[in-house]
Amino acid sequence: MRIDPDSRALGGFSTFLTFVGLNLLYIVVCLPIVTIGAATSALYEVAIRYSDDESGRPLKDFFPAFRANFGRATVLMLCLLLPAVLLGFSSVFWFSHSALFAGVAGTLAVIGAVYLFAAFLFAMAQVAYFKNSVRQTLKNALLLPAAEPVRTLGALVIPVTAVALTILFPPVAILVATIGFSVGAYATAFIFRSVFTRHEA
C-alpha cells in the first residue's frame, strides 16, 4: 500500500491541523492580556498571506510577525480596544437603570463600543498589511468603518456570531477554542484585502 503525501485528503487534513495549531497558539499568546493586540495583528498577518494563494507558513511566521508588530499593535490596542471595553462595561451600568436617559446613554455606549471594536480590527489588519506610523494607522482605523460600512459589517459578523453562539450554546466554545479564531481571521482576511486594495492608492 502506498500513501500519496500530495493527495487532496492529506492536504486538507494538514491545513486543518495548521489552523488548529494557529488557533491554540493565538489563544496562549493572548493570555497575558497586554499581548492581545500584537497577537491579533500577527494572526491577521499570517492569515492575509495565506489567503493570497496559500503563501507563507502560518505557524512558523506567527512569532516573527508578533515580534515585529508588538510596539505598534500594543499602542493601537490601548487607543481603541481599551476604550471599547470600557464603553461596553458602561453600557451595562446604564442599562441597569430604568430611566429614559440611561437607556439612551446605554445605547450610545454600545454603538461607540462596536465602532471602536471595528476600528481595532481594521487597525490590527493595517499593522499586518502596511508599515504606516501609529498615528496614520489610528486615523485610518477610525475612518474605515464609516467609509466601508458593508465590509465592516462583514468583518464584525464573525466574532459577534461566535460570541452569541457561545452564550446560547456553550458547547460551541469548544469549536471556537479549536479553530474559531484562526478560521475567522482567514475569512476576514479576504475582506481586509479588498478594503485595502480599494484605498491603497
Structure, described:
- This protein has helices spanning 8-30, 36-51, 58-95, 100-129, 134-147, 149-168, 172-199.
- With 201 residues, the chain is mainly alpha-helical.
- α1 (8-30) crosses α7.
- The longest helix is centred in the middle third of the chain and has 38 residues, at 58-95.
- It is globular, with a radius of gyration of 18 Å.
- The mean pLDDT is 90.
Quickly give the structural class: mainly alpha
C-alpha geometry: globular
Write the element-wise H/E pattern from the N-terminal end onward: HHHHHHH
Q: Which percent bin holds the helix content?
A: over 70%
Q: What fraction of the residues are assigned to beta strands by DSSP?
A: under 5%
Question: Which ranges are low-confidence, i.e. pLDDT below 50, for 5 or more consecutive residues?
Answer: none
Average pLDDT number: 90
Largest sheet: none
H/I helix tally: 7
Distance between the termini: 55 Å
Give me the Rg, rounded.
18 Å
Record field, number of beta strands? 0
